Each structure stands twice: as structure tokens, then as C-alpha cells.
Amino acid sequence: FDYFGSAVALSGLVAIVGAPNEDEDATGGNSLESAGAAYAFVDVGTNWLEAQKLVASDRDGSANFGRSVAISGTTIVVGAPNDNQDANGGNALTNAGSAYMFEPGSPFWQQTAKLVASDRSGSDNFGHSVAVSGTTVVVGAYNDDDDASGGNPLNQAGSAYVLEKLNGTWQQTQKLAAADRGLFDKFGHAVAVSGTTAVVGAPDDDQDANGANALSNAGSAYVFGTCNTLGTPILSGVPLCVGQALTLTMPATCASGLTAQLSDAGGSFASPVGLGSVQTGQNQVVIPSGTPPG
């Protein structure tokens, strides 16, 4: 019972198929029950050929590597939600979970990183869902109890983690949690990412979009936008002063805080300025004291 096909992903001419209950390693030996595997297939024009069998470098029994898979270009992510070990292969926590990065190497792909949550805990099942777009990865941990700050535990409220490739290494840059998180919502059961927009599913959430009208396990999904610098100007030709309040219309929620860069009339930029958390729609933000002149 390999459960080949439990997870699938496709990018261009490459397909990835997960087999989370596979016992054998990449050579077909060294059996470990349900260690898991993923298979890469390439479209050669007349057929799809298996190019490589992927396994974790620190594979272990019951890790269920291959429970989730994702691919963007030549970058592959494979989730192992029942893995116990941290990124160094130690500090065992039962079913804390992990995800593995594979990038071009020998013969076709090689493992380049093992990802774990910065606040990992037993039974979080980090890696139950994975998604990748370019140099951004999102990993779901639907059984995580803690909020984005690592506190306020609610049993199986769930979370998702954003990791980015910075200076050649994969680093966690944000933890996502629902603004109206609740018990047993399982936020993070499914994730997707495209560019700077992420979507996270919470299949057991009871509330509607306004946090009311409870229907047991009706479910919901949350959309998150980038919380880094604004890619395009939203104000132009407006003189700004310390302490001044501005109304900004935002296309997405940035709970972790919005960062903006201000410039003078000549186009010279000051250092980035933190404007606090914002929600989708209209927001009032204040230019903080100590903002350097542009």
C-alpha cells in the first residue's frame, strides 16, 4: 500500500507524484515502513518517463514523505507531516513534521534543504500541505495550536509558514494564522501560492466571512498578500510629515505589518518605514516619529 498518487503537482514538462506509504529508498532497498517517496516524471514527447525517485536524506519510518508535493519551474517541495526530526536530524518531536527542498543537481534533482517550523511542536503536522512559486514556499501545519506570535494556544486552530530563498538559503519569513482563528479550524490543511499571494484553507472553520453565522465545519479559505515593500506607488505628490495620518486602500491583509518606502520630490528614498498591520480595504496609518527625511 504505497498510496502512489496521494499528492500530485505539475510544472511544464515535469510531474511529481507522492507515495507517502512507500517503504523503500531511491535504490529500491533499505526498507522503512511508510518512510515515503516522491517520483519525478518528465514528458519526452511520446511518453512520460520516470526520471528520479526522491526520498529524504534522513528518511525514517512513518514520516510519510510524499504526503504533499509541489513544483515551480525546477524547484520541488515534498512534505513529510509525520517526520519527528528537526532540520539537523535531531530533537525528536512526534509528528512535528517537515518539508524538503529539491533543486537541480545529480542525477536531475538533489535535496538542498530541510524545512521545519521555527516554533515546531509535537503533532503539528508541518508539511501536510506545501506550495511553491518561484523563491517562495508555503507550508501548512493544520494541527498547530499557536498563533503567529507562538502563543495563545487553541487546539488544532492551525497555521501556515512562509519561507523564502534569501542569499541562497531557505529562511522562514512569516507565520500565518487566521485573524478569527478558532478551535479545530485546521487552518493550513491546504495551501497555495502564486507570486506574492497565498491562499490557506481551513476546512473545519465554522464562521462566515464576517466571523458570524456559525455552521459546523462549513469551512473557509484566507487570502494573504505580500507584507514587504509596496511594489508600486500608492501616493504621489503628497507631502508627508511625522505624525500625519494617511488613508491607504490595500488589496490584501498584512497582519505582520506593512513596510513602505518614502521618497522626496527628486526620487531619493529614505530607509523603509514600518506602518503597522493593515487589512483589506481602507486603513488609516500614521507616519511614525523618527522617520528619516526623504
Could you characterize what this model shows?
The model is unreliable at 227-234 (pLDDT under 50). Helices cover 0% and strands 40% of the residues. The strands form 6 sheets. A 4-stranded antiparallel β-sheet has the order 1-2-3-4, with no helix packed on it. A 4-stranded antiparallel β-sheet has the order 5-6-7-8, with no helix packed on it. Strands 9-10-11-12 form a 4-stranded antiparallel β-sheet, with no helix packed on it. Strand 13 and strand 14 (197-202) form a beta hairpin. It has 294 residues and is mainly β. The chain is built from no helices and 19 strands.
Quick overview:
By secondary structure, the chain is mainly β. 0% of the residues lie in helices and 40% in strands.
Based on CA atoms alone, the radius of gyration comes out at 21 Å
Mean pLDDT: 87
**Based on DSSP secondary structure assignment, what is the total number of beta strands?**
19
Helix content: under 10%
Oligomer: single chain
List the helices and strands and how they pair.
Blueprint: E1 7-11, E2 14-19, E3 37-43, E4 48-54, E5 68-72, E6 75-80, E7 98-104, E8 109-115, E9 129-133, E10 136-141, E11 159-166, E12 169-176, E13 190-194, E14 197-202, E15 220-224, E16 245-250, E17 254-260, E18 273-278, E19 281-286
Antiparallel strand pairs: 1-2, 2-3, 3-4, 5-6, 6-7, 7-8, 9-10, 10-11, 11-12, 13-14, 14-15, 16-19, 17-18
Give the tags:
single chain, 294 residues, mainly beta, four-stranded antiparallel β-sheet, 19 strands, 0% helix
